[in-house]
Amino acid sequence: MIDLPSDLSPELAARMERDRAAGWRSPYRCPDAASVRREQRPQDAPSVWRPAFVRDIEKIIHTPAYSRMSGKTQVFSFRSNDDLSRRGLHVQLVARVARDIGYALGLNTDLIEAIALGHDLGHTPFGHAGERCLHAVYHERCGRHFHHNVHSVRVLEQLSGRNMSLQVLDGVLCHNGEYEQRVFELSDLAGFDAFDRVVESCYTRGGAAIGHLRPMTLEGCVVRIADIIAYVGRDRQDAIEAGLVDGTEFADGLGGGYNAWILARASVDIVEHSYGRPRIELSEELFSELARAKRENYEKIYRAPAVEGECAQAIEPAFRLMYERLLDDLEQGREESYIFRHHIARVERALSFYGKRYDWQRDLDQTVADYIASMTDGYFMELAEKLFPSLTFPRRTYIR
């Protein structure tokens, strides 16, 4: 087992105490005054008691997409166990880890919280398995790519009509925790025009573009690494709770205790190597350990037949059938369809409050992707079984 310190070095701890007493904050933090929005609206003006990024937090938690994350599973989709993580809990865990690190580094913790709470708003039902299914059929149809981080930006702007700050949108776009880095350097993103070009490249180039994204703020960098830290140990705990693996199977010998171990040591390591610097950096040891732990999770959890096979058999046909049916409903103008009644009507009603409209007719494939991505696991299964009675999904009930 690799030996990572569980506490800061005495030298840095003493320096931080002196800095804290003097009211020090990182010169590289993103100040509230730097917040930039597409629209300059009086109701979005910051105040002493509601700074710019606090307003962004409030915008996010009042979206329907935020509420629905409690109904979207993280990894284990067909197990009736309320102790297993849902997407809504995951974003809170990321926010907590990231705020702790950001506070120690003297960064803007309100911006960190906003990015963390909003980073998975565009996630599909059934976690990454659902994302792969939706991407496959969407890409076949129109040649564009579906990735949840890119769709999270769309949810905040086009589907919810929120006038978000560029810094939050950038952090949400760049959060993708599947792409590890040891050193996080900032991008030189300067405005919304450049941001929109980056978003479009993600749609057209997919992973080739997403793999090279860099946040424009240190706060965004902290959320990106906190995303990995928050799920790598928690997913292991959930796998043990679900009975998928035995805790003794993991090479480090910590079982479910690995979550607490990595949370403490990763935070210490990042603060030790990033304090007062214009970048976020991990030691070689921590970077190697996170990569090792992720590999082991993929081997024992994410790609295990009981998870990957179960999801593939259950949801791949359902996603394809659902997509084709909903697209046909749009093309034929069947206004009695659920995509009109449960999606388009609701989005249009929400956007009208902000004087905006949902241009759903411009790209029907995008509209179908919008609807499917918005669904919770339970809603997807109920609608799929109603539209296609021959479909069945695994059911692991609470009482057996």
Q: Overview of this structure, please?
A:
- By secondary structure, this protein is mainly alpha-helical.
- The protein has two domains: 62-302, Hypothetical protein af1432 (Orthogonal Bundle), CATH 1.10.3210.10; 309-387, no CATH class.
- The chain contains 17 helices and two strands.
- Strands 1-2 form a two-stranded antiparallel sheet.
- The protein starts with 9 loop residues before the first helix and ends in a 13-residue tail after the last helix.
- The mean pLDDT is 94.
Q: Which CATH C-level class of the largest domain is it?
A: Mainly Alpha
Radius of gyration: 21 Å
CATH topology of the largest domain: Hypothetical protein af1432
Q: What general form does the structure show?
A: globular
Topology order in helix (H) and strand (E) letters: HHHHHHHHEHHHHEHHHHH
Count of the domains: 2
Enumerate the spans where pLDDT stays under 50 for 5 or more consecutive residues: none
Instruction: Let me know the largest β-sheet.
Output: 2 strands, antiparallel
Q: Give the overall average pLDDT.
A: 94
Number of helices: 17
Distance between the termini: 39 Å
Tell me the β content: under 5%
Strand elements, count: 2
Which class best fits the helix and strand makeup? mainly alpha
